[in-house]
Amino acid sequence: xxxxxxxxxxxxxxxxAANLPCNHSxxxxxxxxxxxxxxxxxxPQYIIHGLKNNETNEMASLIITEDxxxxxxxxxxxTLRDTAVYYCIVRARHNAGNNRKLIxxxxxSLAVNx
Amino acid sequence: GAGVSQSPSNKVTEKGKxxxxxxxxxxxxxxxxxxxxxxxxxxxxxxxFQGNSAPDKSGLPSDRFSAERxxxxxxxxxxxxxxxxxxxxxxxxxxxxxxxxxxxxGEGSRLTVL
Lengths: 114, 114
Prior knowledge:
The complex is a heterodimer. Chain A is mostly beta strands. Helix content of chain A is 0%, strand content 46%. Chain A has strands at 9-13, 18-23, 31-38, 45-50, 55-56, 61-64, 70-75, 84-92, 108-113. Chain A has a five-stranded mixed beta sheet, with no helix packed on it. Chain B is an all-beta fold. Chain B has no helices and ten strands. In chain B, the strands form two sheets. In chain B, strands 2, 4, 5, 8, 9 and 10 form a six-stranded mixed beta sheet that branches. In chain B, β8 (88-95) and β9 (104-105) form a beta hairpin. The N and C termini of chain B lie far apart (33 Å). The chains are: A mainly beta, B mainly beta. Chain A binds chain B through residues 32, 34, 36, 42-46, 49, 87, 91, 93-95, 100-102, 104-107, and chain B through 4, 31, 33, 35, 41-45, 48, 50, 56, 58-59, 91, 93, 95, 97, 100-108.
């Protein structure tokens, strides 16, 4: 599985957009970019995923560069409840081969401040 | 239930004792994962079950760790002769084969070995 690089921590003011970057320069053609977040003392929660097109859902937007080597997760109006560790991982969609192991880094610890 | 259920939520045991952790995945999900998360660390893959296929045990750290999944549903992770370094949060996740690939996590079982 391709590995990802994320900043260790970020701060964001409540109500402002939080832009969380992720580098995945070794991503292969069949690998998707997935984002999860983990609020303190809870299990990780799926946010969004994409292959090459930008994606948006009720939680966030995902912007993937044309060369697919990096992406940005955007929380358009961050709230205090968005304070969490955000993980960017890459994987093929199907549960086969090494895809199942899902290499999880340390993620980005986002602090949303009042 | 609607989500992945794990029990116990907290377990304190003495060094050398055996422990069993239980995971009840989302109904109909054929893939089940166990991860371990030590304090301040990312998720470490332990074992993966997919339908009736042989499990991928490549992430189990030692032969004291084992897991089974009965009837393609509930899974039990067993740690024999626990050591202090086994202290961590053990997370279970399930996913639907053929779905969009996202993992649904339980709240985890926090194991403390004294």
